[in-house]
Amino acid sequence: MGRLLQVAGLVAGLAGLFLQFSITVPASMEAGRGLIGSVVFYFSFFTILTNIGAVLVHASLLSPAGHAWFPAFAGARMRAGVAVAITVVFMVYATVLARLWQPQRLFLLCDVLLHYVTPALFVLWWLAAGADGKTRWRDVSWWMLYPLAYLAYALARASITGEVPYPFLDVARNGIASVAIASLAITALFLALCVGAVLADRGLSRIRAPVVQPRKQD
After folding, report:
1. Residue 93, Cβ neighbours under 10 Å: how many?
2. Residue 215 pLDDT > 70, yes or no?
3. Per-residue CA distances from 78 to 74, 86, 198 (Å)
4. d(CA 47, CA 17)
């Protein structure tokens, strides 16, 4: 079951990422950006970066070649961290972003793949086979670097280009107080999920641990 979920997650992730790239870059260029600017725009979304991480985790574990190319993504810390991040992708999109626009056709397909299908497959795989009890509380500080670094990048880029990847990060439109509240809320959600991931990892490892039967005395 674990391998089946990984294969499905890898296929869905690659399909969503490539399809999103193939429609985002031309649309971005039509909107006035250059090629380089359009590529940078594509890679400026937390959803894209996190789905890339999920694909690399799957690739690193499914074959020796993948493990050789992406060894850092095969470890327990990375697996759990990506599980947390891609859960945030699903939760923020489903509760906040999905109601802000109505994608059609290929854009809708990409949205479903990257915000619903790949998160569900990755988290199900992690719960079924990826969690092994090796995460530690100190890993939480490493996982938190990702959203904080992304937030710093998104706000810095917005101040230079005037573009924001997500509406709730738009200081010019919403004000700094609103952006700060939204950022703190998502950071708190991320932290809570990190704590939950460590607890789940430890709990699942105990459940899966083989029961040692006492030896009968002769």
Report:
1. 20
2. no
3. 7, 12, 12
4. 10
Specify the number of domains making up the chain. Answer: 1
d(CA 85, CA 50): 7
The pLDDT tens digits for 66-87 are 777 778 888 889 999 999 999 9
Kindly write down the DSSP assignment for every residue of 196-216, as one continuous string: HHHHHHHHHHHHHSPPPPPPP
Residue 52 maps to a domain: yes
| Residue 163: domain span | 2-208
Sign of torsion, CA 91 95 101 102? positive
Contact 78, 71 (CB under 8 A): no
pTM of the shown model: 0.90
Distance between CA atoms of residues 53 and 45, nearest Å? 13
